Structures are given as C-alpha cells and as structure tokens.
Amino acid sequence: MLTPMDRHDLQRFLKDPGVTLRWSRGATDAYEAVEIRDQRLRWYRWSHDRGEAEEETWQTREEFLANGPARNAPPRVLATIEARMTKP
Questions:
Q1: Which of 17, 42, 45, 70 could be disulfide-bonded to 35 (CB atoms 3.0-4.6 Å)?
Q2: Which string of DSSP letters, residue by residue, matches 23-48?
Q3: DSSP code, position 49
C-alpha cells in the first residue's frame, strides 16, 4: 500500500540526516541500533526476520544527559553519542 509523502518529515531529515550506529552481540537475525537526529535518540532492535524496528525507544538530549543511555551499548557507541549530544 502506498502512503503519501510527509513533506515536513522529509524537510526535517534533509536538514539533519543524523547518524545511525549499529552493533550486534553475535545475533544473526537482528542488530541493535541508535539514531542520532534532531538532538534526539531513537533506540531500537532491527529484526531481519520481520524487516522492521522493534522495541523502539525515543530519548531527548536532556534525558540522555540527565539519565544516561536508554539502553546498553558498546563503549564506542556511547562515546559517539556523548560527543554529539554535548556539542553546543
């Protein structure tokens, strides 16, 4: 089924394409990921079987700085997030 394009979402994406960080702890059917975009974090697990994101959690910059990451992630991922979230 076709869905209409959301021009507002497209404009927001083009303004800040962000970055996606992915990692796996040995699973072959899925990987963990976090997207950094618009000073927000989108944490999720990507299922290859279902072809979609699962267990999605959104976190604002303020929530990240106050409470730390919403999920466990490798040190290199956390360092990248911290560097981007602490930029003025």
A1: 42
A2: E-SS-SSEEEEEEEETTEEEEEEEET
A3: T
